Amino acid sequence: MLTIQFIPYNQIAYLDSGEKIRRLLREVKLNKIILMQGRLNPGEETNLIQQTMEMIDETFKGIEICTVYPESNDALGKLRTFFLGSREGVTVIGPASVVKEIKRNPNKIELLTSESKEGRPIKKSKGKKR
Amino acid sequence: MFEGLTKTIIDFFSSLFLSRKNLKMGIYGAPNSGKTTLANRICKDWIGTTMGTVSPIPHETREVKIKEKVEIKKGNKKLTFNLVDTPGIATKIDYEDFLKFKMGEKEAKVRAKEATKGVIESIKWMDNMDCVLVVVDAVQNPYSQVNLTIIGNLAARDIPLLICANKMDLKKASIKKVESAFPQYRVIGISAEKGIGMEDFYSALFKLIK
To answer: A93 touching B, CB under 8 A?
Structure first.
């Protein structure tokens, strides 16, 4: 069974970066696919990758992650996103053992999960206008 | 947040008072995008040696490698830098993937462990770079999270970057896809392996480091 858990922005907005990442990884290690409102800031993204690498062993193979978001071109918007993250857009994070691949193009995310009984990957789409 | 602010202030004053004698040029990208092939090409072109081994098996480079004082010339202009080849950044590493390359289980597990450490090392080094070449496999979908994370981090740190759309010698390669994914950056189409597009690449390097 595939569990998709939605995390609204207000649930993680007031967590510090470390807590935010621990929360996400805790859920992912329970084999859940996380659908998070908003996105991590660039520093948090690299911290997430670093912590994921530290956790990898024979059972936990890492994560697949993808974000879609509207581009913020003004300097203030970029600064705000860098320090505070952003509630705009959506982030999908799943365990690599469940999510084989996430394909992103500007307007949609395609999630290719583990093979179904028929031997075909299950394809799920999450559309998001920029 | 406080640490980030302190670092920004230190970096600002460092850039004002320190000379750029030890300019560090990093090569970043996903595994198998051709980072070491590009490093080797630059070294071969200008100092006649290579920098590291390349392999079709992902995570061949698992430690940061530095080639000091690489000097390139264009007309009467000269550019000297320390070239830093980094392990590929990934969000997942499965030792079983290495078994497909006829590797024994024990060796595959060791390689996977080393690869995870390599990714961490790559990320840690990002802060030390003065400029970065982001190598993107022009055959693959450029919108991978690894590419976005690397470029997002460099942009947030104000580190100048040049995107190298590599493997342009292959039929399915598309520089347009890479350009449309990152419209705010200069993209140079190259084949590091075949040496295609290197003249334009070196010209772009001079523009990158003013």
So the answer is: no
